[in-house]
Q: What sequence folds into this?
């Protein structure tokens, strides 16, 4: 799968390089600061694509003594780097737009620029959709992040084309720096979003969607494993395409060690089987049951039950994430 990701990102890098050249050709034809802004953003596509190639290469390396959880965290560095580059490009674009508001150069050959930017916009749109779809299928945040950036480039190019058409037919040259400034703001926003995603991953911010998926899997199968009295203190960390989950599981205190191991292994196997596209590593701490567990314990043939069964407590974020046993 890693080799496929590398092929896709290398294709993206090659196409981005060609489109960047085309945009600079359009700038030299027209002297439009809006087209220059678009070309500057495309340079970031190329730089970020190169870094993405390296991050995907590292992600594919196996775990070792220095990296016991693998190398997947580098993907968050990748999208953070790309976000920072996009943010810097946005600042430069706003600065250049300000200069052109003060001193507006004569625009030339707008028609040539329109056709060139239209071609690059269509190519970027198709490439961005392909990368986002591939990232979703391969569970690669690097491909998805790169695709989202390229889609932003394509959408901003549509506004640029509209402005160039208006300038071509009306001669309103002030639209050129105005559109450039609008593109700069849009680019700044996208850069911030990618950096925010990067920081969240590096700080191990909990992905509640994944937590809900794991809880859902356990809820669907808990009737097959009545020894699973409760699950709590769950924490989820993402390492590229893999997840590390640690949690506490309450089991009957009298179970033999071999049976405890089987119950824990069953839980791990179920989540790995149903959380498709991800490798999930568990670290599970086993807690013994206590008398207050009896009212919601579904092990009806328990030989040491001290209180009759009353009701089942559904597992949700509210009782699975905190570090406390479930009580009736």
A:
């Amino acid at each position: 799968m890693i080799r496929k990701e590398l092929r896709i990102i290398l294709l993206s890098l090659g196409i981005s390089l060609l489109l960047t050249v085309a945009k600079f050709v359009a700038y030299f034809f027209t002297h439009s600061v809006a087209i220059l802004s678009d070309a500057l953003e495309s340079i970031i596509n190329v730089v970020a694509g190169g870094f993405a190639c390296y991050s995907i290469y590292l992600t594919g390396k196996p775990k070792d003594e220095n990296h016991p959880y693998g190398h997947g965290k580098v993907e968050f560095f990748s999208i953070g780097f790309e976000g920072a580059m996009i943010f810097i490009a946005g600042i430069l674009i706003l600065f250049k737009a300000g200069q052109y508001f003060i001193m507006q150069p004569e625009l030339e050959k707008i028609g040539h620029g329109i056709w060139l930017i239209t071609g690059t916009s269509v190519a970027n749109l198709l490439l961005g959709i392909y990368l986002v779809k591939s990232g979703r299928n391969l569970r690669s945040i690097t491909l998805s992040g790169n695709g989202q950036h390229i889609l932003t480039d394509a959408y901003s190019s549509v506004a640029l084309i509209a402005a160039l058409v208006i300038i071509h037919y009306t001669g309103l040259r002030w639209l050129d720096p105005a559109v450039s400034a609008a593109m700069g703001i849009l680019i700044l926003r996208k850069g911030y979003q990618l950096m925010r995603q990067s920081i969240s991953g590096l700080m191990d911010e909990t992905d509640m969607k994944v937590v809900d998926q794991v809880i859902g899997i356990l809820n669907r199968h808990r009737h097959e494993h009545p020894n699973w009295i409760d699950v709590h203190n769950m924490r989820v960390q993402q390492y590229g395409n893999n997840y590390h989950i640690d949690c506490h599981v309450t089991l009957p205190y009298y179970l033999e060690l071999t049976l405890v191991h089987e119950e824990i292994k069953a839980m791990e196997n179920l989540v790995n089987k149903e959380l498709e596209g991800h490798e999930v590593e568990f670290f599970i701490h086993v807690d013994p049951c206590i008398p207050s567990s009896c009212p919601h314990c579904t092990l009806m043939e328990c030989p040491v039950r001290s209180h009759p069964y009353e009701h089942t407590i559904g597992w949700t974020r509210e009782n699975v994430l905190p570090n406390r046993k479930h009580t009736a």
Observations:
- Residues 2-202 form a domain with the Alpha-lytic protease prodomain-like fold (CATH 1.20.1510.10).
- Strands lie at 230-239, 242-251, 279-288.
